[in-house]
Protein 1
Amino acid sequence: MFARQGFYQSTVSQIAREAGVADGTIYLYFKNKDDILVQFFNFRAKQVFASFRQEVDKSGNSTDKLRSLVRRHLEEFQRDGDMAVVYQALTYQNIDLIKDQIKEVSKMYLDIVGEILEKGQEEGTMRKDLYISLAKRFILGAVDSAINNWLRAGRKYDLASMTEPLIDLFIRGIGNR
Amino acid sequence: MFARQGFYQSTVSQIAREAGVADGTIYLYFKNKDDILVQFFNFRAKQVFASFRQEVDKSGNSTDKLRSLVRRHLEEFQRDGDMAVVYQALTYQNIDLIKDQIKEVSKMYLDIVGEILEKGQEEGTMRKDLYISLAKRFILGAVDSAINNWLRAGRKYDLASMTEPLIDLFIRGIGNR
Amino acid sequence: MFARQGFYQSTVSQIAREAGVADGTIYLYFKNKDDILVQFFNFRAKQVFASFRQEVDKSGNSTDKLRSLVRRHLEEFQRDGDMAVVYQALTYQNIDLIKDQIKEVSKMYLDIVGEILEKGQEEGTMRKDLYISLAKRFILGAVDSAINNWLRAGRKYDLASMTEPLIDLFIRGIGNR
Amino acid sequence: MFARQGFYQSTVSQIAREAGVADGTIYLYFKNKDDILVQFFNFRAKQVFASFRQEVDKSGNSTDKLRSLVRRHLEEFQRDGDMAVVYQALTYQNIDLIKDQIKEVSKMYLDIVGEILEKGQEEGTMRKDLYISLAKRFILGAVDSAINNWLRAGRKYDLASMTEPLIDLFIRGIGNR
DNA sequence: CATGAATGAGTTTTCATTCAT
DNA sequence: GATGAATGAAAACTCATTCAT
């Protein structure tokens, strides 16, 4: 519902009806309307991001790790497009309510990418002169943007298949020669 | 005010007070509250984006054009950080109200980048095997992301100075060899 | 709880928690929330007032009877300060719910005082020209007021020790002779 | 309406209807429902009590002053019986909201009575052995009680005519001599 | 043109009460 | 008898919008 209408356009009554419960029941599980968003973030989005770390640890060299991360990212967001919408909306807004949560999740992601880039520099597959703190944000931004495009295009094509083209753009830009 | 509090958190009364007029006066210039957002977009954001075209036309080769576009983009958004906040918030949300306007502005931008990339391919400075419709979105997304990072970091550093590092990442990725 | 927060500020859930039972259990012993107040009045406050009669019957002359009544009144309310709070709050409000109970209890008290005053007139210890129906209310009011002062002062001093000073004021008044 | 139904039994909608305005209009003049009570107290009850001082200053000896005070008190409360109900209900409850206001108003009254009693002692019309801090509360309590009885009896008789009998009881007490 | 008081529909939230377990 | 999750009616409050001045 938040994905379709946005948080402020969704009323608690609607949410309750969609959930098949009475209005008051909502308040047995959420402190207030805001808390619905907060709990969504803590129990859904955070989990997804936490799963990225495992995926990366499995892969071998840094390029594979980056590929795994991006693929997993796109796959998860494709699997739950509504979460994707809400996550994006929240990330690019400045909502006090969950500002800290957003920062935390974002940092988690950037740390992973940062480690991959450093490892890549050691391996010799990534450029030594990379401005890492920019490069990692650049990568997250580009993936976010790919997701945003997919959403705005109506979720019609296969988002995960964007992995290779994206990696290609990243690597040939940051790859050593 | 929209930048600080968001659209739904801002009341018409607050807007009127900030503007130094009475509540009713707002309705002499705007059909309703929504219309304030629509008109903002039409007369502020659209103008900015329209100015990009001129900037690009001035420059010489495609790399210079891309550099000019990105620099102008960052400069304008830095100059009016509040507009930047609102623009970003709207872009990554799914507001029916201005969905079309967003698409239009976005298309305007992507068209410019697309032309630059094609020109670059002709000139031999850009890779011939580029998946252009992805690459141009990739570039917009990366610039958006740079702006978003700047906003979330409190607008403290010089955003325009990110131009060269960004271009470097783009070009060495998409440049021909 | 009613003493601390008042009847309307206390929820049935709170009452149940304080009583160490489940919410629903309350409704096995009380018809509804109002009934809690009604039963409190019938089984607690009424008992206390009924006990006054016995106390008075024990004493000898009318002055002693009045002294016994006031002392017992102050002692009982001091013993159960929370009941005192609730009783006072209810007496000076106009709650349909227990209007009749209040009247009954109040009449019970005024009847006792009235009898004492009449006895005193016969004995020659009370003024013959007393406007009895005023005087008895005057006495109840003054005792109530002493209790109210004690409550508002935080129940810190010994309420029962106010008996003598009060009786002195009743009997002799404030005028010099 | 508060006099009739009590504060918690009165809804803002009812208040608005009685006032002949829309619900929202209430909130242009009162911060919230509680504020209605607070403002009532500050602008109505406080004024009444402030007027007592003037009345007392006019009279001559201390007995006259006491008589003037009591008469004015009864007259004002008789004139605005609804205020009387609300004032009494609030005084004998423990509402945090206006606890301080009640204390202030009550102190104002007790101070006046205290001064009168001291003056009476100097004049020789009041007993020298009076426990003044008790005696003044005793007087306020007795007057309050007279008002309360009048209210509960349906405001049918002339409250102000109770002045002389009350003063008589204060001054001479109930004891025969 | 501008004002700002008034409106009332629409929202969030509370909580007495019920009833299947 | 006891439970406590679920209910939904009712209440407080907000705020976009209107319109007489």
Protein 2
Amino acid sequence: MGNTHIAESGSVQSVDRAIAILEILAQRGESGVTQIAADLAVHKSTASRLMSSLLAHGLVEQVSDRGRYRLGLGLVRLAGAVTSSLDVVSGSRAVTRALAIQVGETVNIAVLDNNRVLYVDQVMGPSMVSMRSWLGQSVPTHCTATGKVLTAWLDKPSRIAARPDSWGKLAPNTITSGEALEKELAQVRELGYAVAYQEMEADFVAVAAPIRDVHDEVAAALVISGPASRLKPKDFDSLGQIVKASAAKLSGNPNYWRE
Amino acid sequence: MGNTHIAESGSVQSVDRAIAILEILAQRGESGVTQIAADLAVHKSTASRLMSSLLAHGLVEQVSDRGRYRLGLGLVRLAGAVTSSLDVVSGSRAVTRALAIQVGETVNIAVLDNNRVLYVDQVMGPSMVSMRSWLGQSVPTHCTATGKVLTAWLDKPSRIAARPDSWGKLAPNTITSGEALEKELAQVRELGYAVAYQEMEADFVAVAAPIRDVHDEVAAALVISGPASRLKPKDFDSLGQIVKASAAKLSGNPNYWRE
DNA sequence: ATGCGTGTTGCCCATGGCGCAACATTATGC
DNA sequence: GCATAATGTTGCGCCATGGGCAACACGCAT
């Protein structure tokens, strides 16, 4: 995220600055007025007034009087409206709940967002091991089943843009080169689903399939996840077919899964 | 939420307007530029430019070209940073996961927000029936265990301000008068926990206890919930004691659960 | 083909956003 | 305990930006 915003048609500079503050706080956790002013290259009185507006609406809050600021719960309220409207329009939760019951694991929906995976809805399965809140989390594309599904059908320049900055080994089976990833994505296109078997985290397994828009393009990914002790390689193809079937029910929705 | 913003020291009018747009879209689902302009009492070119800034940052998106707007997934990303930081600072998820395992039901944390209950974190239990995403949802105070906990220890004018606008019967046991609610809240203060037994929804039961700040004031509520077929009246007191014990572990955290 | 409504954008000007300076408060070092 | 430094806030005045107007492009209904 660039700190200086190049003026473009129709944008409002002070609104852009206020949103940049939210993005800085999302990355840093907490910041003071002086630090925010430095990041935005504005005077600290400017930063103080922008923070004041965000504070008044609950989008930021002060950690202590005359101290540092952090993101506020007003954002949780607004995000709740987003996830509710995802369901209102697509009816996705009926499908995701049925899938969670059928396979007994956590189910999520994710989209591609700034070349990373963003989890936008979640239904948890009965497992204790998978008690984890993915909603709102952002993860890399190369080591997640959702990321593979969201990128496999992109053109090559776009697939390359979505690759990680570094190929560190995050888990026993992390893909660590562009070549290996291209072969993996070719297989995803052939099978119609993706698997991540202990690639982002040890013991963590996910199976994902594409949710397509009316133009048959991949708009989102439907994914089930759980521990390796329960999701074994011999089951991957049957699970893949099940997830594909559920994702197909969510595909073809006009005016929804658009980026 | 008033549409006209009375200028106050340190606030930035165009930022206030942009946030007001987000709040309108949260309430309405979708809106057009002309409608937003009318709500804000500004020219539609002003509304169009404000929307353009929000669009550029992903806080809104267009449902279709030259059409209506809705809240964007950028808010889900920002909210994810909020719920992650709740855990980072308070370590609440270790406690909420342990509680979910212990009682086998869904666990949530909620705060009082604009005289309503706002769910800010969630761990789901093993039950299929309780598969429901509360995160970001806002519900009334009088018919929820969390709402009773969040309001019981307020002074009387604040308790009255938190009452619903109407006393409609939402479920078999909905409280339908201020007098009955006052008696209920007195009992909550005495027991140290609250129960909602089929009050907001049929078959839905919740047991909540207060999370207190360093000043011993109620900052948030910890709640377990599930269906009436599993959570029976004879169990309420033991469940209440268990939730109180878990809430106590989350209490006394400086600089966190502040409103 | 025409009329209507919506959303966008160039232009210009009035105003609101901003930087400066001063101040209050808190934290830090000695 | 005191002096200094750093942070955040706020009054003031200026000017750069936000915003209204008008014109335009587009989609839809008739």
